[in-house]
Amino acid sequence: MTGEQIFVSHAPADLELVQELFSTVKNFPFGVHIALEEVESGRSRKRLEGRLANSDLVVAVLTAESAKSQWINQEIGYALAKGIPVLPLYESGDLRGGFVTEIEGVTLDRENLSFTVFNLLCRLRAELAPLGALSVPNWYIRFPCTLADCGHPVTLELEEGQTKLWKRYEHGQLLDVSCEVCESTYYFDPATIGFVRREGGI
Ligand SMILES: [Zn+2]
Questions:
Q1: From 3.20.20.70, 1.20.120.530, 3.40.50.10140, 2.40.10.270, which CATH number describes the 5-131 domain?
Q2: Cα–Cα 20 to 30 A to 33, which of 7, 23, 47, 169?
Q3: Alpha-carbon distance 172 to 10, whole Å?
Q4: pLDDT tens profile 10-36
């Protein structure tokens, strides 16, 4: 599980929502390409086809807004034609028009984005896991220690499966990892793998 590329197809009006949903997903060691961010960096949306063609998975965010956008169906159709799996993320199942009607996806619950992100991570772990090398079976995030003058790389490994992570979330048990050099401890939300706080350190 390193170096895989995910393309996120979504309506322009949903950019903020998409950024929120993928903010922690982006910390994992694979590429997350959000369509509108790529467009804002000067490309035209039409020219994202190259990006799409090189993706391992396309996540299609289906909302009332996306139903009005011509791009989503085009990008889904393009991905499927290239044999790239499409994971729909939808507010309600009936938004799965056209190509993905039959595909079971992730339900978007705006009132409970933690649960939505958790479910998204479940599916991503299931879809991308077989691509990972056997020597690194676990999902992980790696970041430089943020204590002043430390900067040592810290790795949080997800040793538990998604079911156990959700139980931890329900019991309010955070994930933690310590920096080997300065002994700062970092805490993460087990549902979203979002950073919560740092404690200690020399
Ligand atoms: Zn440190």
A1: 3.40.50.10140
A2: 169
A3: 32
A4: 999 999 999 999 999 999 988 999 999
